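Practice problem: predict the structure.
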Amino acid sequence: MADLELSSLTRIPKIELHAHLNGCVRLSHLQDLVEDSSTLPSRPGANATPRQYFQFMSAVGHVTGSSPHNLRVVLRRVLEDFEADGVVYLELRSSPKHTGSMSKVEYVETILETMCEYQGEMVVRYLVSVDQSKSLAEMNENADLAIHYAATSPLVVGLDLCGDFYSASKEHSMAVLQRCKNAGLKIACHIAEDPTTLDHTADMLRIIGPDRLGHATLILPDSEDGKFVKENNLLIECCMTSNILCRSVLKYEDHHFKKWYDLGHPVILCTDDSGTFDTSLSKEYQIAVKSFGMSRDDLKKMNFDCIRWIFDDDVKDRLYEIFKN
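Answer:
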């Protein structure tokens, strides 16, 4: 079946709305950035736990964030990967980090400078991430950067709440998100990924009112939270391979993407962490074709219909033309 060929799926223009910079780094991207490749972290094995994946991405982040040079090199390679996979609009997420050679301001500005210098055809935008596992003071630092750069750079289009949910404080997350919402930022919020986070879900939805939902794995369409999601037409960013490997979903055929898609609710396939989980957007599309019988036309329509949920309003008309043509 031609639709199953990756080469065919790669040619579909794609929108990627849920991708973390450090998670999209492949170990091959780092080989020439370290003196001894044996010091590079090893990708978690088949039976890895979610916490091990978080630890792996943190270790990758130590390499990418060790200098502005490393960050530039890795970011360029990640952007090239996405464009080669047919992505025409990318919102890339990363949490500003203070390292031995960079302040958080330098981290953000290095990302923005590298995006500005990028010569590809793909439209690239940046979501400043707030890691919910950090202290309230550090979360607020990143929120301050998101608010500042959203007002001063057209490349910064919103804020992402992410991070190790096992260490998260609901009160801290709510306080930071409310401040960013009050400042007019668009918010993509990781939500309902694990049973331990379900007590956050109702307040996150109703009090914060995020613009898009990351994963939302445990929000069922017929639940009270699901009814709220439907009534407010909130886009769900679905990352199938990530969910399978982190065990929040047991089988592709049972993935909540299909439940919401069949209802006509706005959902979009994303990679989450293409390097960590050894995937690509075309591979995620291939899984959707195999598991749900989706056609290339279904996949193109999914992208076209989801343009209205991208965070940069100024490029929507351009994207509509790309998909129409």
